[in-house]
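Hi P.,

Sorry for the delay on this. The queue was packed all week, but I finally got your sequence through. Input first:
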Amino acid sequence: MKRCPKCNTKKEINCFPKSGGRGDGYGAYCKECQRKLGRENYRKHKERYFLVAKERDKKIDELIFSYKNRPCKDCGKSYPHYVMDFDHLGEKFGFNISFPSIETIIDKSRVEN
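Then the structure:
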């Protein structure tokens, strides 16, 4: 049993999110309170969340454009970026990947038209 300081109730340990940075390996607040705090924080700082996401998307677009603005690895000819595509050579990835992971995936792929 662990006490949540936000709602001041004792709950089972599985009611707390895992957290590697804490001594017991679980978060200070229960999952329910943590969710409420997260939603409240998002509502208060919604504009900042959108700006950070927009900046991240812009960096990703610039990175992809820089790789697509190179000659084709198959024929060596240069084509407009919108014609070039990535051949991932069997690499599978999802949509929620980190910025450094994108560079790693692109480096492992071939850019071709």
